[in-house]
Design a protein that fits this description.
There is one protein chain. α7 (137-149) packs across α8 (178-195). With 248 residues, the chain is an alpha/beta fold. Helices cover 40% and strands 15% of the residues. The protein has one domain (5-244): TIM Barrel (Alpha-Beta Barrel), CATH 3.20.20. The longest helix is centred in the C-terminal third of the chain and has 18 residues, at 178-195. It starts with a strand and ends with a helix. The chain has helices at residues 16-29, 46-52, 78-83, 94-99, 104-117, 129-133, 137-149, 178-195, 198-203, 217-221, 239-244, and strands at residues 5-9, 36-40, 57-61, 88-91, 120-125, 160-164, 206-209, 228-231. The protein contains eleven helices and eight strands. The chain binds 1,3-dihydroxyacetonephosphate. 1,3-dihydroxyacetonephosphate (13P) is lined by residues 9, 93, 165, 170-171, 209-212, 230-234.
Length: 248
């Protein structure tokens, strides 16, 4: 069975005070560890969150560069994230792809560097509304995941969580229906079976992101191939604790 995974991507939101409230709430919630719960604050707050968050909640960076060190002003490497004690990194988020030019090749290089550094990766894929309307959703997400799969060995998949985040559902309040998400998740799992292995397809968590909240998480989470969520806006609110407690 795949352990349910709930990630909170704060994006470029929060302050020392606001993030302390979220961390205190999560600590007070005393989550039982039946789900993996991972929060991704902005880089400037990672170390403080790592020092103050209690088990079982873990911490993720939102991005990492593919070089280990050097003259790359403003960037942070996976080696540095690992050195700071952070176990996870989100890579390939659609905002990185569309706003900051992270191509499929760059995302693959970043995933490779993250695994080499010993990090676990939340690897994001997703189609735009235009691509969905053209009927090419599966081609788009399989190409995005394919670029990543090319740099992985079979054993590396144990360190990867795939996040399916349709761009049209991110921050829009337009959540994918359970049927829409399940269909893409099932197709991604089939693709994993045919291009990687049946074992990897069976064990890899495929989580959904895009307007997940406390009201829709139970329904979405009941779909056979939805193994958790990557939550944006609602991860900044008290309702994140309810989402983190989703029962499969
Ligand atoms: P929202 O939950 O705000 O739609 O964001 C989803 C997301 O992009 C998580 O990475």
């Amino acid at each position: 069975a795949r352990k349910f995974f709930v990630g909170g991507n704060f994006k470029m939101n929060g302050s020392q005070a606001a993030i302390k409230v979220i961390v205190d709430d999560l600590n007070n919630a005393q989550l039982d560890g039946s789900n993996d719960v991972v929060i991704a604050p902005p880089a400037i707050y990672l170390c403080k969150v790592l020092e103050t968050i209690k088990s079982p909640v873990e911490v993720a960076a939102q991005n990492a560069y593919f070089k280990n060190s050097g003259a790359f002003t403003g960037e942070i490497s996976s080696e540095q994230i690992k050195d700071a004690g952070i176990p996870w990194v989100i890579l390939g988020h659609s905002e990185r792809r569309s706003l900051f030019g992270d191509s499929e090749e760059v995302v693959a290089d970043k995933v490779k560097a993250a695994l080499a550094a010993g990090l676990k990766v939340i690897a994001c894929v997703g189609e735009t509304l235009e691509e969905r309307e053209k009927g090419i959703t599966n081609d788009v997400v399989q190409k995005q995941l394919g670029a990543i799969a090319k740099v992985l060995e079979e054993k590396d998949w144990a360190k990867i969580v795939v996040a399916y985040e349709p761009v049209w559902a991110i921050g829009t309040g337009k959540v994918a229906t359970k049927e829409q998400a399940q269909e893409v998740h099932a197709d991604l799992r089939k693709w994993l079976a045919s291009t990687v292995s049946a074992a990897v397809a069976d064990s890899t968590r495929i989580i959904y992101g895009g307007s997940v909240n406390a009201k829709n998480c139970g329904d979405l989470g009941s779909a056979a191939d939805i193994d958790g969520f990557l939550v944006g806006g609602a991860s900044l609110k008290p309702e994140f604790i309810e989402i983190a407690r989703t029962k499969k």
